[in-house]
Amino acid sequence: MGPDAVTDTRYEESRSKVQPLRFVLRWVWRLIKIALLIFVLAHVYAISLKWVPVPGSITMMERTLGGHEFRRIIMPLDRISPHLVTAVIAAEDARFCQHDGIDFEAVQKAVEERERGGRLRGASTITQQTSKNVFFWNGGGYVRKGGEAWFALFIDGMWGKRRVMENYLNTIEWGDGIFGAEAASRIRFGKRAADLTEREAALLAAVLPNPHKWRVDPPGPYVSGRAGTLQARMRVVANEGLDDCVLEPEKWKARQQP
Description:
Family: Belongs to the glycosyltransferase 51 family.
Number of strands: 2
Mean pLDDT: 87
CATH class of the largest domain: Mainly Alpha
Shape: globular
Domain Glycosyl transferase family: 67-216
Helix content: 55-70%
Distance between the termini: 86 Å
Order of helices and strands: HHEHHHHHEHHHHH
Protein name: Biosynthetic peptidoglycan transglycosylase
CATH superfamily of the largest domain: Biosynthetic peptidoglycan transglycosylase-like
Number of helices: 12
Transmembrane segments: 27-52
Structural class: mainly alpha
Low-confidence stretches: none
Strand content: under 5%
Strand order of the largest sheet: 1-2
Subcellular location: Cell inner membrane
Largest sheet: 2 strands, parallel
CATH architecture of the largest domain: Orthogonal Bundle
């Protein structure tokens, strides 16, 4: 075999190795471009929701495909009882007005409690729940958790507290395919969300950890007792101004000034 033949053989071997590598790199680059496009579109969508009502969610689609009757009535925050705002803050996220979407203080406490052998408890904020309800799906997984955390920080800054609360109360599920405060109020109590009493708001907030298991019509002993506890917490939240960033934003802003 002459020198030229040896050279040609080596060239063909080198080429045969490079071609699969180029193919893989080409597909990796395509996947990166698709991921970047999805990332950009998701953020454009998130920005639009500062003004546009949330049209639906993956969970809503799942309930519909699962055969549940889909019920939802979108309402502006001003047409939802302030009792319900105070109730969900008392039940789900007492530091809603203090954190920036993620309550790192609560996360640290949960980790420390777990390390001491205590039970693993959640530290998910209302903003994180809104992020999950609007952009993601139920269930665990680091991909969803990471995306949920990122969008919680993003929407807290982009939307502001009032808009986060408004979208939360219009997307949260109260069981049986019932989404949002207005539909829950009408179906559970036969009245508008604007007319909810303190007790009714506490009952709705009391079942949020497990709305498919716990009922408010009528409430069982556990839900009734939890609602009573929440009513006491609601008064603390109101007295300490922990709901002012939603109900009295100007008062809250003034308080934050140095």
